[in-house]
Amino acid sequence: MNDSSYERLLIERRDHGVVMLTLSNPGKLNATDATLHAELATVFADIHRDSTIRAVVVTGQGDAFSAGGDLEWLATKVGDHAQTMRMMREAGDIVRTMIDCDTPIISAINGVAVGAGLAVALMADISIIDEATRFTDGHLRLGIAAGDHAVAIWPLLCGMAKAKYYLLTSEFIDGREAERIGLVSKAVRAAEVLPTALDIAERLARGPQDATRYTKRALNHWLRQALPNFEASLAYEMLNFLGRDAAEGLDALQSKRRPEFDR
Length: 263
Hints:
The chain has 13 helices and 10 strands. Helix 6 (150-158) crosses helix 7. It has helices spanning 34-49, 71-75, 81-100, 115-123, 139-142, 150-158, 160-169, 175-180, 193-205, 209-219, 221-225, 227-241, 244-255; strands at residues 9-13, 18-23, 55-60, 66-67, 105-109, 113-114, 126-130, 134-135, 173-174, 186-188. The chain starts with 8 loop residues before the first strand and ends in an 8-residue tail after the last helix. The strands form 3 sheets. Strands 1-2-3-5-7-10 form a 6-stranded mixed sheet, sandwiched between helices.
């Protein structure tokens, strides 16, 4: 793995084969732009191939994990078939490479997490969140189907009833509630998020590597069974990017007004 090849991902190698991966888009709360999205689509495959890495902690720089898609970047997708197809390939790769990465991934959700950032946060094998952090899968707020990751994993994490409620309403959830319904592994105080994640990563890195990796691989067969559902949701999301609701949702978000999807 070439650590210096990444621009939006800061890579810090720590003791015992632990790597800390920090999402970094300064001044934009680590929002996902073209560069970060492309790098997230490849980094977990690189980690999987690097035998020196035994565990990974993913977090966000500063006080946010990732504040969703960069609006200027998203605007280039609306109504543009070629750009939308590229985004679909990368979004699919993010989810599939996290599933196929045998190295355990722990997310330290230190603040707001939306969009591709939320996909990484919840697709991680173990997720530690600031109990006061609020997040949402906001796809429907933008006028697009909930793709990315949610259809694949939310029903497994919190059950179909809760998954449908939160994905259809885009209602915000705080860390305490997310832990209560099983959407995350553990909610702790803000100051404890990263230390807790790093402690878990070190414990896994010092443990039996084959047993750890093959346990993860076997458990992820549940997610592999959900890949057809995921692929369908991702395709529906991209179709919506080519329609008028996505244009209205993005304009409303940029203008900070309520969207009018029924017009």
